[in-house]
# Entry
Amino acid sequence: MIRSKPGVLALATSLAVVPACLQASVLEEVFVTATKRQQSSQDVGIAISAYTGNQLEQLGFDNAQQVTAMAPGVHTIQPNGEANYAIAMRGVASSDFTTNVESPVALYVDEVYVSQMSGAGFMLFDMERVEILRGPQGTLFGRNATGGLVHYITRKPTAELDGYLKGTVGDYDQFKVEGAIGGGTETVAARLTASYHENDGYITNRLDPGTKLNNADDLAARMQVLFSPQENLDILLNARMSEQDIRTGFFENVSSIRSGELTPDELNPVLGYIDNDGDVYAGDYDDPGFNDLETNGFSATLNWRFDDFNLTSISDISNVERVYIEDSDASPVSVFNFYLTTDAEQVSQELRLDGETESFDWVAGLYYMDLKINDTNGAITEPFIGPVYDDIGIARTPGAEAGLNNAYVSELESISLFGQLDVPLSNELTLIVGGRYIQDEKEFAYGTNAVEFLDPDARGFNAGGNLANVVELAAYEGSREDKEWSARLQLDWMAGDDLLVYGGWNRGVRGGGFNAPIFPLSPPLDYDDATMSYDPEQLDAFEVGFKSTLAGGLAQLNGAAYYYDYNDYQAFFIIGIDTITFNTDAESVGAELELQANPIPGLDILLGAAWNDIDVDLDGRTVSSVQSPEWNLNALIRYEWPALGGKLAVQADAVYRSEHYFALTEAETVTESGYTVTNASLSWTSTDLRWQATAFVKNLADEEYLVQTFDLSGLDVFGITEQYYGRPRWWGLSLRYNWGG
# Structure
């Protein structure tokens, strides 16, 4: 059961004049888990953007990726279109699309770590709040949080009977329905929540115009039961599942017959094809693919409060299964269909103690995770692998297509001990000291095989019974045992009732790992430890910042500046068909400013700016990291006024990202020159808050902007660049009814 610290509720109540849209981020009863204790985010010396469920509703966020839009220096990346999702913060990002790689920005749902990027594209519904923590969080969260983390907290059961039902219709035959119902007694309460979303897709396949691609077909549900057998003990059981089955094939084919260069007006002789009609949402896909994803999990969270300390136990089992394939050449020619499969089982356990004394506040704990992955990647690519069989004299199977099937098995066992002390040196000054010791043991086995796909169009295209003439081309086995530590040393100074100034040093670490190349490696790369394995990444972050409340609570201005020094930075590099992660050095410097204001009743303003300059050492020269624009700007304005027996609100927001790259080469083929995306909405809420109707338009200006590219340029590869564009303009209408509560 959520309980506030004394004094924080009084602060929230005294500042309740701030309206619903912006007060939710820091001035309502919002308590962050950044310190593993409940605190107002304005009292925590960490750069935080936090949103309550009401604010997420008002902002129109309905999936896990959208929450980054209004957080300075934060954005969502899609390393392989709909296959994977990850978050980038302050230039800390990864574009590796193999599924055995964990993101440097960690995702948590109800304090449970989400290790698989393929399981990070979940829908948002019935949320209590979302917290975005920028900067390394290695001390208390630990697992790969070098860049920061995003924590999604769902609504928990209460004794009171309440719930909601919401329906949405929109462009591209969108239909979405979600709802929740909960209630019970003071001893036992439950909450059931579900969401279903479908649309026809926005990518036209000119070879099959009646079937759109990149559609939606998503289902998710969770059931939570809260037991409170005594006043100081809560046990929360959480069962959850999700399914997705969509059509893929959304890359725009751009001729690139010279390495690193776009040549859109020149015929690609490798494919004998050119797509220069100017429509980035249409293509000729002879073999469109699919993304079939299933996730499920069960967790048990125990909170036991004693006189001098609290005990928290979080036990979780999570599973991700996924089959993904795409028409990678994005053409009517059957040349290259890339695929990924995922079968991941994660078991984790956290035990945590926290308490307060007259001299300090403290947190200590133990974290354990066992992660088993049985994955494959590869490609159905007859033109490239078919000749292998001719070279070694193996007769071909009639009707089959040759390709690659790369199976790899990974097992990670991680255990860590952590702790933190908040020591008041005076009424205004607090010293924060924390640390975490981490031990990772990882086993890895990989093999790349030439195979024949007997039925390349089968749903189970890489099932054992559909593979013939398997020829091992290379294999590798390895193991690593890494012992790392992260730490935090910081001073928080309450310079006044409405001003916090902080500064300190944070070390974050990202675990070591192994490569799983798609194509056989080219010399000088080889299947040895030097190529296939890479070391843990260490980030030493030095940061100063402030958090201020202005004009009697009508505005908040927060800012931070930082310097990042990397040791063994994990860089993902793509050259032609070689995909590899290796260790190098990097450094970064940046600053952020965030303003929330309510200058007059009914008017909310949110402004954010982030500047970042990151340099990665690449063969003696410095390049920018992937997905790391120098400037990120965001703005939101919302005005609400009484009307029609309730309140009307009009809202507009915009996000700007300057030039950035999708690969370390910084070539023309992997460059986005910068873009601005705008959204708008009009909503009406009844006086009793039971009904809410909203009309919205996303990407109002119909901006065409790149969210990912893959450079397959040059006639020695495929002579193309794959370009994946963000969604076009999208309108919709939603109606929500709340009861109880």
User: Anything to note?
Assistant: The longest helix spans residues 382-392. The longest strand covers residues 467-496.
